[in-house]
Each structure stands twice: as structure tokens, then as C-alpha cells.
Amino acid sequence: MSVSGSLLERARAVGTPIIDGDQAVFIWQGDDPPLLVGDFTNWTERPIRLEEREPSVWAASVALPRDAYVEYAFVRRFREGEEDTDIDERVIDPLNPRLQYNGVSAMNNTFTMPDFAPTPLTERGKGVQRGKISAHQIFGDALGGSHRLLYLYHPPVDSPTPLVVVWDGPDYLNRAGLNIIVDNLIAQGRIRPLALAMIHNAHQGRFTEYLQNEATVGFAVHELLPFARKHLNLLDEGEQPGCHGVLGASMGGLMALYAGLRAPHIFGQVISQSGAFHIAPNDERMLIDDLITLIPPPPLKIWQDVGKIEWLLDGNRQMHAQLVGRGYDVTYLEYSGGHNFPMWSQGVGTALETVFPPG
Predict the structure, then answer these.
(1) Cut 0.85: pTM above it
(2) How many helices (H) and strands (E) does the chain have?
(3) Does position 335 have pLDDT exceeding 90, yes or no?
């Protein structure tokens, strides 16, 4: 690596990480360097030790796609052994002011590689007509009798539209700007107008709720859809089977495909982003694998994407091969990024264009 001046001088001048070609060089100043984690280490699973390059200046180089968006953090581990991966303190990179909430409990540092091109869809276009957002509390008998926050997106049209059920809905609304993306796509004539039902998850019960859960499918079909119909002008799935859609990321991506497989007469369009496929221990088959293998393929239109530097990549490749092998209509994309809402926001517009084209 060629540098002008010392590593520290360069880091202070341009910020960190320093980008040299396809290499991102992470810098830390001090006598007690932390560990480096990020999308590229599966976070705390394979932390990277920094090496001393100059007196009290520590660094690590990571090769990344030239068009990647990346999140990372420094961490300190106070207990360490062969199998002890406890992380006791998270440290923000003092030389990088770019921060992004990780959706759980902390902030990540972020950066982009030189060829990264952000989608313009997350910025509302000039003169674009806004859909309306309304907030509701819905009581779900199928979900154990709990109340859930629900945001409905009312598209700026008078005609009946499909409905897209969105798992982790408030995150897609507030962190991905889904309503702005849909407003722009409708205004540009790139998708047919559609409505959104953005439902909150079960917080600490989210994993169970989205783990191929029949109760969640029942809630969507028998409670959420009728509730949404009272507030939105929707197409009749009885007259147009499979006219609606379902969208989710991570565990929500798994649940989106599962809902499509279990209720294809309702949800004929499926968008699965970074789906949590093949996560069973010891490579055990999951229920969704048996559904794909044993039932005749229903007429679903599926979008599937996943990051090239995230731990769910192999599982998504396997799922894609299963779907193609069974004759499903599936569009598949691997993007240069990790497991986060900024990247799902980048791709969801193209996904909607694919499964809900105009006309």
C-alpha cells in the first residue's frame, strides 16, 4: 500500500477506513487496540486483530467489493479463551463520523467503497404525490391475543390496489423509507399502485413469530387482511387469486417466503431480502425445505436477494437452487453489502418493480 505521510496523518486527513483500491484500511491510535468486527467477520464470530504498523498506530486491511456499502465497529473482549467470544464493550471509531443504528442496541460505523452508487428512490422526487400513512393498533387473536402497531400506506390513487404485508413494518417505514420508495415508483410508472400493511414484530418473540409460524400466516390471512380492507381500497383476492404480496428481511425474509408457500391464493408475490434460510443446527432440514420439495409449485412470483458479505449468503444460494430446481419463478440478486436496512432499502425498489410491474 502506498501512502502519502504516515497512516495516522492520512487517516486524520481523509477519515477511516482509508480506501486503497479494493482494500479498506482500518486505523486505531493508542496502546490498547480493540478488535475489528463487521459484516465481513459475521460480526463477533471472527473478530480481526489489528497489527501495529507505526508506534501506537494499529491497522488491519480488508478486501471488499469496490461497490460495497459496509458497517463495522471496534470492540473490546475482556474474557477470552478458545471458545469464549463474549464482547464486553463496543467502541465507535473516533476517526469516522458516519454512524448507523444497528436496529438492536448500538451504533455501527459505516462507509462505502469507491464504486458504490446509492439509489435515488429513497429521496422523494420533485412533485411526487404522497401516499398517506395511518397508524393503528390491531388485536391479533392468532398472535396470542396481543395488540400490534400497524402502519397502513394509502397510495395516491382511487382505484383498487394489491396489498403488500410487510414484516418488521415500522423498520421498513422508518429505516428504509419504504413509503418514499413506493411513492417514487408509482409516480414514475415503474410499478402498479399498491398499498402497504407494515406490521410490528413481537420484539423478543420475533424469532418464534417469523420461524415458519402457522399462527403468523393465520394472522395475516384472517385478521390483518380483513382489517386492512376496512381502511384501504384493495383488490379482491377471490376474484384475482394471489393478487397481494408479502415482504420481509432476515427472519422476515424467511417468513415472507413461507407465507407465500402456505397462502399462494392470497400472497402471489414474495419479496425475501437476506432470508434466514438453512439456519437449523447441524444442517437439519427446515420445514420450508419440505414444502418446496413435496408440494407442487404454486404460481408465485419471487424476489430473493442477499449480501455478498453476510453470513446468510450460502443459505440463500442453497434456497435459490432449490426454488429453481422445482421450477419456481424466482429472480435472484447478490448485492455488495451486508445484513442491514440501508442495503435492503437499496434493493427493495427493484424488487417491487420485478414482482409488481405496471399494467
Answers:
(1) yes
(2) 10, 18
(3) yes
Beta carbons within 8 Å of 305's beta carbon, 6+ residues apart: 272, 273, 274, 316, 332, 333, 334, 335, 347, 351
pLDDT higher than 90, residue 31: no
* Cα distance between residue 138 and residue 148, in whole Å: 5
Q: What is the pLDDT of residue 143?
A: 85
Contacts of 100 (CB under 8 A, 6+ apart): 71, 107, 108, 109, 110, 340, 342
Pick among 1.10.10.60, 1.25.40.10, 2.60.40.10, 2.60.40.1120: CATH of 7-112:
2.60.40.10
As assigned by CATH, the class of the 120-355 domain is alpha beta
Asked if residue 312 lies in contact with residue 335, where contact means CB atoms within 8 angstroms, the answer is no
Q: What is the DSSP string of 201-258?
A: --GGGHHHHHSS-HHHHHHIIIIIHHHHHHHS-B--TTTSTT-EEEEEETHHHHHHHH
**100-111, pLDDT tens digit by residue?**
998 888 899 999
The 8-class DSSP code of residue 286 comes to P
Residue-wise pLDDT for 236-253, tens only, equals: 999 999 999 999 999 999
pLDDT at residue 82 tops 60: no
Q: What is the dihedral of CA 230, 234, 238, 243, to 10 degrees?
A: -140
Dihedral pair phi/psi, residue 10, rounded to 5°: -70, -40
Q: Where are the domains of the chain?
A: 7-112, 120-355
The DSSP string of 14-48 is: H-SSEEETTEEEEEEESSS--EEEEGGGTGGGS-E
Residue environment code for 210-227, b if the CB has 16+ CB neighbours within 10 A, otherwise e: bbbbeebbbbbbebbbeb
Distance, CA of 137 to CA of 169 (rounded, Å): 13
Which three cell numbers, joined as nine digits, stand for 335?
448485492
